[in-house]
Specification:
single chain, three-stranded mixed β-sheet, elongated, GMP Synthetase, Chain A, domain 3, alpha+beta, 3 strands
Length: 124
């Protein structure tokens, strides 16, 4: 991400959307959604919010988030004082699943423990 201002606005949006998801939404489709990151355009008018979820299908979660976007934007405008309330776009963040996949692959590899090549009497 670019400027320091973009990073600060992204952090504010991240915190506020996380709070809204946790305390103010009651849609079961977005019950177990976590904000993993936010990217803000250079003009601060658009924000892409990356989310991961524990339950439900990807399409149900995205449909729930997209139907609640006007609510999120209104709450964001009331709680974060910016010249323009950015347009919000939600995207699924698959990096956690990818990380789990890599972890699973690494755990399948059978690597014998390394042999100690130092003689026993040469401790420093």
């Amino acid at each position: 991400m670019g400027s320091r201002r973009q990073r600060r606005v992204a952090e504010l949006i991240h915190e506020e959307i996380s709070n809204i998801l946790q305390f103010e939404t009651h849609d079961p489709r977005i019950e177990f959604v976590t904000v993993t990151g936010v990217e803000v355009s250079p003009d601060l008018r658009r924000a892409t919010i990356f989310v991961s979820h524990l339950a439900g299908s990807d399409s149900d979660v995205l449909a729930g988030l997209r139907s609640a976007t006007p609510f999120f934007r209104r709450a964001l405008g009331q709680n974060v004082h910016l010249r323009y309330t950015p347009e919000l776009r939600f995207e699924l963040d698959h990096s956690i699943l990818y990380g789990q996949h890599i972890d699973d692959l690494l755990s399948e590899i059978d690597i014998p423990p390394a042999e100690d090549n130092e003689p026993e009497g040469d401790e420093a």
